[in-house]
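Late entry, evening session. Most of the bench is empty. Finally got around to the prediction I had been postponing all week. Sequence below, unchanged from the version circulated by S.P.
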Amino acid sequence: GKFSKEELQIYNLVYQAQEEAIKACKAGADFGITHRTANSVIAKGLKALGIIQNETETRMYFPHGTSHHLGLDVHDKSNYKNLQENMVITIEPGIYIPENSPCDKKWWGIAVRIEDDFLITKNGCENLSAKAPRKASEIEELMKKESLFDNFVLPKLD
């Protein structure tokens, strides 16, 4: 229910990357702006933390794109050129540091992805999943609350 120091640093870096990608997102912008923006933030952050030596190593820990369309299918097909008003997309940066990575062992096993869904508007975007906790402090508060799954016991299966 509480982030370790290293987990919190990675979480906040992913959160910052998403926040910057959100600011860059508006109708008319190139579809790739969300990824380029998030990637830049993550590259600088991983380097500052000493996890990578060179920003070209970012893909080792951020191996996926940042956005895709949402619609009738989970990953609607598109030409991925420009964002248009009323499109719905994800913005979902992430960092994954596998065991035995070429960085300090304290970072191994940390994986964070923050995914939210956005409606593209004329002047920006609207977070459609805004009621879900996103800040680290909000997540830690939520983890303190009792869950109906805390005492849930699955029946034995034959």
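Two things to note before I forget:
The first helix runs from residue 5 to 24.
The mean pLDDT is 93.
Will write this up properly tomorrow.
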